[in-house]
Design a protein that fits this description.
Elements (H helix, E strand, L loop, with lengths): L1 E6 L3 H12 L1 H8 L3 E7 L13 E2 L2 H5 L4 E6 L7 H10 L3 E4 L2 H17 L4 E2 L11 H5 L7 E7 L2 H13 L3 H10 L8 H4 L2 H15 L1 E2 L15 H9 L2 E12 L2 E12 L11 E8 L3 E8 L3 H17 L11 E2 L12 E9 L13 E3 L4 E10 H11 L4 E7 L1
Parallel strand pairs: 1-2, 1-4, 2-3, 4-5, 5-6, 8-13, 10-17
Antiparallel strand pairs: 7-9, 7-11, 9-10, 11-12, 14-16, 14-17, 15-16
Bound molecules: L-homoserine (HSE).
């Protein structure tokens, strides 16, 4: 009998209890062993929940119970989630999590503590909600060198952008819906300002390179400044605007950032709508592979959490190769100003166009708003052109994927 404890009985924590209970019979048959949810830690009581008798308010009940061998942390936030995770790993308990904040910030240390203590720290649910992407990257792409990752990594923002594009919904109404559906973070700034996507792209980049970049150090722009005029201009250029987490190895160095981008409709990421996420990986042997599915939500995310629990139980008596990451140093990271891709400049049609743009076709999307898509140019070159427009005439600049 394997005893499991759940830390946090919010959206994903309660979903995990539900998946473990609803599918108990088939999971136990597949595993060939039985499991039991022994504790659920939360500050609140849930008198109407079928799991109310399992609630404890004291973490020590779990930490000090030698029968608990698997802990599922779904508290969200860094503290006390990090502290509880560390304590469990040091006490010889396996930990699984959906907490991308903790994995992206403390992943190097927690993976090392797990390795030292002969237990596992797994985080399939931390990226892409219910999409299997982390285990496939570790196992199925292990014969490859991963060159490039581009992903729609945040369900809330993709839901908002889709509602704005297809239904003309306002930003605030769409965000409210995403919150009601249980997609958004407790503080939705993490979603709409791109912070959640930054955490996820550094986790994926670490799986590809072994080096974890501080998510707060990567260039990050969210979706709050996207206007209807930008969306219209994207259509003119045969593109859709998506919030993209991007990582690439450039001359042996890591480049990672998050920003809204014009995604050409020929790219499959352009067609990923609503709460769905898509992760497109280019690797040197397989070529392009794409992972697609629900990027947030109670049961999809819980499905990924339970997949990690099953992995741990199935291998509880085996030695499994640990995840070993290093903290990325400054010399591992590229000079972002040299990052190069095509851009779209959106500007008032009355503007004097900088000479370097004169060779490009101008498109007009109505209301005196014009746009030019360039060939590949660097961040520095894009900044120079933006300065030449002058503030009053330049409306926005987008990177193109
Ligand atoms: N708030 C996150 C999202 C939840 O919308 O993608 C899943 O990580």
């Amino acid at each position: 009998m394997i005893n499991i404890a759940i830390l946090g009985f919010g959206v994903v924590g309660s979903g995990t209890a539900e998946v473990l209970t609803e599918n108990k019979k088939i999971i136990e048959e597949r595993l060939g062993c039985e499991y039991n949810i022994k504790y659920i830690l939360d500050l609140r009581d849930f008198p109407d929940s079928p799991f109310s008798s399992l609630i404890t308010h004291d973490f020590k009940d779990i930490l000090d119970d030698p029968e608990v061998s698997v802990v599922a942390e779904m508290m969200g936030g860094s503290h006390p989630a990090y502290d509880f995770t560390k304590a469990c790993l040091e006490a010889g308990k396996n930990v699984v999590t959906s907490n991308k904040e903790v994995v992206s910030t403390f992943g190097v240390e927690l993976c090392e503590i797990a390795r030292k203590n002969g237990v596992r720290y797994l985080f399939e649910a931390s990226v892409g909600g219910g999409i299997p992407v982390i285990r496939p990257m570790i196992n199925d792409l292990s014969s490859n060198k991963i060159n490039k990752i581009s992903g729609i990594l945040n369900g809330t923002t993709n839901y908002i952008l889709t509602s704005m594009k297809n239904e003309g919904a306002s930003f605030d109404d769409a965000l409210l819906c995403a919150q009601k559906l249980g997609y958004a973070e407790a503080n939705p700034s993490a979603d709409v300002d791109g912070i959640d996507a930054a955490r996820k792209i550094v986790i994926l980049a670490a799986l590809a390179s072994g080096k974890l970049i501080d998510p707060r150090a990567i260039p990050t722009v969210g979706i709050t400044k996207i206007t209807l005029a930008d969306t219209e201009m994207a259509k003119e250029f045969g593109c859709t605007i998506k919030l993209i987490g991007y990582s690439e190895i450039v001359d042996g160095k890591l480049c990672a950032f998050v920003s809204p981008r014009f995604v050409p409709t020929t790219n499959p990421l352009s067609r990923i709508d609503d709460v769905f996420n898509g992760i497109l990986i280019n690797a040197n042997m397989v070529g392009d592979v794409m992972f697609y599915g629900p990027g947030a939500g109670k049961l999809p995310t819980a499905s990924a959490v339970v997949a990690d629990i099953i992995d741990i139980i199935a291998n509880i008596d085996s030695e499994v190769k640990p995840i070993v990451w290093e903290t990325a140093s400054e010399s591992d990271i590229n000079n972002f100003s040299e990052y190069s891709c095509p851009r779209v400049f959106i500007f008032n049609c009355k503007a004097n166009i900088p000479a370097s743009l004169s060779k490009y076709e101008i498109k007009e999307s109505g209301n005196n708003i014009c746009g030019i898509m360039t060939d590949s140019i660097t961040e520095n070159e894009a900044d120079t052109i933006a300065a030449e427009f002058g503030n009053n005439n330049l409306i926005s600049v987008y990177r193109v994927l």
